[in-house]
Design goal:
Strand order of the largest sheet: 1-2-4-5-3
Largest sheet: 5 strands, mixed
Order of helices and strands: HEHEHEEE
Helix content: 40-55%
Radius of gyration: 23 Å
Number of domains: 2
Distance between the termini: 65 Å
């Protein structure tokens, strides 16, 4: 009798562990859906409450209905230091729009058209400029060195929670 009860308990523990691992693996992708449902319910409750607008509770930052719109930028400079500064500025701006709010999905913030470069623009000076402004570990550089006219995109990657320069 004791053997059957002990094996039953062991099976139950294994089942609980397996179910919790499954939930953890699936939970990574369900999170945006749960967040969307939560935000919808908060908006619905807030609209039903018979309170003046200034007394209604504010929504969390990630529930903001403002979407980030793609902006197209044309850089008219060809000096590598100025281009690096501009790219760093747009990376920081994209981080403030998307990364701080942790929007949970991929979002392109800027398309930058670089008309010419006298020299080379690379990841290192852009990261240095960002670190001076206390933006640590937010950049993934995927575009390689820029030494000729090129269009690049600055986007938020929801999976890595970093800004990518592509």
């Amino acid at each position: 009798m004791k053997g059957i009860a002990l094996s039953t308990v062991a099976y139950m523990i294994l089942a609980i562990v397996a179910i919790s691992l499954l939930i953890m693996l699936i939970g990574i992708r369900i999170s945006p859906a749960l967040r969307k449902a939560y935000c919808s319910s908060i908006r619905g409750i807030s609209s039903i409450l018979p309170l003046p607008q200034h007394l209604k509770p504010s929504q969390p930052v990630y529930c903001e209905t403002n979407t980030v719109k793609l902006e197209k930028i044309k850089l008219n400079t060809n000096i590598p230091e100025e281009i690096s500064f501009e790219i760093a500025s747009y990376v920081a701006a994209c981080w403030e729009k998307t990364g701080v709010a942790n929007i949970g999905r991929d979002q392109i913030c800027y398309e930058i058209d670089i008309t010419g470069v006298n020299g080379e623009v690379s990841e290192s000076p852009v990261k240095t400029l960002l670190e001076r402004q206390n933006y640590q570990n937010i950049l993934t550089w995927k575009t390689g060195s820029i030494s000729s006219p090129k269009s690049i995109a600055i986007m938020y990657d929801g999976d890595s929670k970093k800004i990518e320069v592509v």
